[in-house]
Design brief:
Strand 5, helix 6 and strand 6 form a beta-alpha-beta unit. The chain has 8 helices and 9 strands. Helix 1 crosses helix 8 and helix 5 runs parallel beside helix 6. It has one domain: Rossmann fold, CATH 3.40.50. With 222 residues, it is α/β, with parallel strands linked by helices. It is globular. It catalyses: (6R)-NADPHX = (6S)-NADPHX; (6R)-NADHX = (6S)-NADHX.
Length: 222
Amino acid sequence: MLTISCEEMKSMDSYAIKNIGIPSIVLMENAALKVIKNIDLHNINSFTIICGIGNNGGDGLAIARHLILEEKYVDLFIIGNLDKATEDFNINLNILKNMGMKFTHITGEKDLTILKESLKRNDSTIDSIFGIGLTRNIEDLYKEVISLINSKSKNILSIDIPSGLDGDTGKVLGISVKANKTVTFHLMKKGLLDKEEYTGEIIVEPIGIPKKATDTILKRME
């Protein structure tokens, strides 16, 4: 199986957007739909979704929208400085707001208590906090959130990579989500190999990045 580094993945993504002309929001939508495809919608009816403010969080917001369209119950949580959110994150958050969706912005102990009750109550947890760009150790409120996810969830699905895992080395950056399933996008990341305790089952899903983008970047990285 072909495995790639985080830098290669980012470059393939960027090439598809800048050189081929695929809008980044289209790739995000494709990613969300591929995650929905891997959820047992017949048996799982309630979800806790925890999003960071980057594009991994944007994936989570798009997934939340599709679950609502499937008439599922969704508790949505966001952690991070909303003033620093990415453009595509904000597009998806604005859609949810226009649909009347409420969310809890995790900023302190009161919000952690709400999160804990949600995790215990709902059938499944979706981890959409950090993507492959994470390189620093997880601390403070983020650490508390991931600890709660691991201890209180019935079932955990991570988007692209479990939050807290280094996408290149597989090193745990202080703490990591321990997922039952990880849906990763385009190609397998090196850091996901032999980390089943954290990744659970790994499913690699294409999200519409053309072969030309993959081949060009792999040749450039030789």
